[in-house]
Design brief:
By secondary structure, the protein is an alpha+beta fold. The chain is built from 19 helices and 13 strands. The strands form 6 sheets. It has a 3-stranded antiparallel beta sheet. The chain has a two-stranded antiparallel ribbon with strand order 4-5. A two-stranded antiparallel sheet has the order 6-7. The protein starts with a strand and ends with a strand.
Length: about 450
């Protein structure tokens, strides 16, 4: 009769990552591995006793494993009793066991098909992530058609297939980085299929996903000052203020900004939608002023009180940001507005890149910038054990705001706010944009000192 045991498969798992727990079945001088819905760190698995240890859900997982073992043992006894066990190949036995453990998956009997595995892979992911993967699936569907997609196997996706798919997408998506998103999604599905022993085919060994340096997406400090101090049209003000607020909060994404609900002890604590990374941000006075100005009903800001979702608002915001600059009307009554945008490619996302660029320019350490943006820095394993001092991020943000808004570094005024130098322009151009602020006048009292007139 076939024998069973549990096995933590660490063969393709990097150090520090969790591995999939599998049920190993010895059958006809071969070992069949059945992936279970359990991931454990090596420290959470006793390889001698084949039991779970040091896991917060130890009791629940142990009960689940007992059920799995009992179910499979009962199945093997029945197959032995009927004599069917000896007639089954290892592949057939694996399919039989998996169908017993996951009866809901029996509608996808052919595990080599790409589409069922793709769906199974994205099913537990967040809705925002699912949307990105669904877009990839739509591109494949447009490339080969619905019928071909339903019959597509992993082995059908060859190196030539990938190159042809890339050429197809290039017709409507000239950006290599945009196309790379779809290839990374494809690669993730392949890695998952290989990890679960659905396939050994892997066309990405020779297909390299090369990122191309993107166009500029940040403003230099002088450019940012021009934007912040420009006397924009009244209807543009709220969009510019939201850009300001994002920058004041170290480039927080609009999807996270509009969903904020409370400020506690002068700080914002939330998980980033895209990555789940936990943020804790100090709300500086400049940001607090904008929260008060645009106070919402159900959220800190007004956006979701008036727009269905952040995407609609962000599109309108980008459209208006790209118009900001000198404006004049064509002659005649009701003349059309003609804009001379200062930054015609500007989007909400530039606040994030601009904050990082300016922080680096005033010598904020890379580690602090990475923490402010929620990026991983240095050795990932080491970072798990190092609790970063969030005060360093608070100090860094204050330094960036002081430099951008007031021309100060370490409390000293380096460049006078409102001066041509402050905006990186000459005096005529500064005045033309309506940016120039003359220096404050000082009352000069004339006194005599040792017979000389002193001003």
């Amino acid at each position: 009769m076939a024998s069973t045991r549990f096995y933590l498969d660490q063969r393709k798992t990097r150090e520090g990552q969790s591995a999939i727990l599998k049920l190993a079945i010895a059958h006809r001088h071969q070992t069949i591995l059945i992936s279970l819905d359990v991931r454990l760190l090596p420290s959470q698995w006793d390889s001698d006793k084949l039991t779970i240890r040091n896991h917060p859900d130890k009791q629940l997982l142990t009960t689940y494993l007992d059920q799995v073992k009992n179910t499979v043992s009962t199945l093997l006894l029945e197959l032995t009793r009927t004599g069917e066990l000896n007639r089954l190949s290892s592949k057939e036995l694996k399919a039989t066991v998996e169908a017993t453990l996951h009866p809901e998956a029996t509608k996808f009997p052919d595990e080599s098909l790409f589409l069922p595995r793709f769906r199974k892979f994205i099913d537990p992911k967040k809705e925002s992530t699912k949307e990105v993967y669904e877009h990839t699936l739509n591109r494949i569907r447009a490339y080969i058609g619905e019928d071909a997609l339903s019959a597509l196997k992993f082995e059908d996706i060859t190196l030539d297939w990938l190159h042809d798919f890339n050429a197809f997408m290039a017709k409507t998506s000239p950006s290599p980085n945009a196309r790379n998103i779809h290839f990374r999604n494809l690669r993730a599905v392949f890695n998952n299929a290989i990890e679960n022993e659905v396939t050994t085919h892997y066309p990405f060994r020779k297909f390299k996903i090369k990122a191309v340096e993107t166009a500029k997406r940040s403003l230099y400090v002088e450019e940012l000052r021009r934007l912040f101090y420009f006397p924009c049209e009244e209807h543009q003000e709220k969009y510019l203020d939201m850009f300001r607020l994002s920058f004041y909060l170290m480039g927080v994404n609009m999807i996270d900004l509009v969903k904020l609900t409370e400020i506690v002890n002068g700080r914002l604590d939330f998980n980033r939608t895209k990555t789940g990374h936990l943020y804790s941000m100090k709300v500086e006075p400049e940001a607090m002023e904008l929260f008060e100005k645009y106070k919402g009903v159900n959220y800190l800001l007004f956006v979701l009180d008036h727009w269905t979702n952040d995407e609609f608002f962000r599109r309108k915001m980008n459209k208006e940001l790209q118009k900001i600059g000198p404006m004049h009307k064509k002659p005649g009554r009701g003349g059309k507005k003609i804009y001379e945008p200062m930054f015609p490619e500007l989007t909400a996302y530039w606040a994030r890149h601009s904050w990082a660029t300016i922080a680096s320019s005033i010598d904020i350490p890379d580690r602090v910038i990475a923490e402010a943006l929620g990026h991983e820095y240095g050795n990932r394993i080491t970072n798990i054990y190092i609790r970063f001092d969030i005060k360093k991020v608070d100090i860094a943000n204050r330094k960036v705001l002081d430099w951008v808004l007031y021309g100060k570094i370490d409390g000293k005024e380096v460049v006078r706010p409102g001066s041509p130098e402050f905006f990186g322009l000459d005096l005529p151009k500064t005045k033309k944009l309506g940016l120039y602020l003359p220096p404050p006048t000082k009352d000069v009292k004339k006194t005599r000192t040792r017979g000389k007139l002193k001003g």
